[in-house]
User: Fold this.
Amino acid sequence: MHGLPKIIGISMFPSVDLQEIAVINNLLNIFETKDYFKPTLWGNSEMVKLDYDRAEIKERITMQQPRFSELYLQRTDSIEYSGSFDLISSFRAYFGFDFKNTPKKLWPEIYELSEVIASIIKPRYGITHGFWPVSTPWQSERDRIHKWMNFCSQPVPVNFGPSGPLGMGTRTYFSGDILDLFHKETFLNIPADVTETDWGGIRVDLVAKPWEADVNELLDRWICVMDYMEQYDVFAIPNFSESKRSVSFNANKAWEKYLKNLQRLRQGEE
Assistant:
């Protein structure tokens, strides 16, 4: 394990409707607070890349011309990033951005950015994580665990929906149905830097200032935290590929039961 993270990712599953213009305003305000975070491009799909124009974004969303369900933002100058968020509220609604090759002196600002974003979208489950490089295929047991940590820190709708929370990242958020399902006290007692947020969630940093820690310190703490969480069956069950390259996940019994209850509720509403 060597080098520095080439990507710092922010992945969140919001509990609020991001289609509200007031919410979109707040999110765009965050990205515009610092010149080096201001978007340069936007679009209503991954293929559309228009010059960033906040007024145009708001007008098109309000008038639904054209109608779209996702908002994509990208920055191609100095601090590079790309990402998108769903404008329609659903069980799998997602907010995700990747910051690429960010200078280490700005890492604290990305964590601050994630903190302000979380206060607006109130993630049910969310992760901010620096993806330190690891050998592929993994060469040792520690490499395998590091690979597991990185895969846990890439929750997207396709795996979160059927499998539930995958695991911890460098910084992890929990709120709403996740706290209710697995009990708030479980998260408050995690052996890490735990904070109850003003918006009703819980933030867990592996260490007090994760942007200052090296990969070995973070991985040691991650192992400790995951050992603690194992007794509560919160996270999805990992499956390690024979090629020693990837990790997939299956739902645990608690999440399977939760999904069945959701399905019954939906059928009852129809």
Notes: The two ends are 52 Å apart (CA to CA). Residues 253-269 form the longest helix (17 residues). The chain has a mean pLDDT of 94.
